[in-house]
Amino acid sequence: MVLTKTEAEARRTCDQGVGTYLTDRHQVHIQRSLAYGVIGGIIPTSALLIISGFYSLNRITALIPLAVGIFSGIGYGVYTADASDAQHEEDFDTVCSKFEEEEEEEEDESGDGE
Hints:
With 114 residues, this protein is mainly alpha-helical. Helices cover 81% and strands 0% of the residues. It has 4 helices and no strands. Helix 2 (18-52) packs antiparallel against helix 3 (64-80) and helix 2 runs antiparallel to helix 4 (85-112).
């Protein structure tokens, strides 16, 4: 049986179990939240750095929005990482049940040939 790369990855994920799958989903969620926080912090930081060139503004204080964005992104990601666990478990069960059905059919076919 020839497996596509996507199917092989899905089977590997099913073999590792739902706990590993949820951990991966949590990591992706936290990384995405961090990215949003960084982007949200860079925009006002850039504006404040440009303004500091024209007005007397300490450039160190211009970095405060970046720090707030980073910490907010991480905090939000950690706090809400498990919010969609039920949906992720349902997706995992849907995909892996199809693979289990295929394996059972293959076992039945090989058992009939004996």
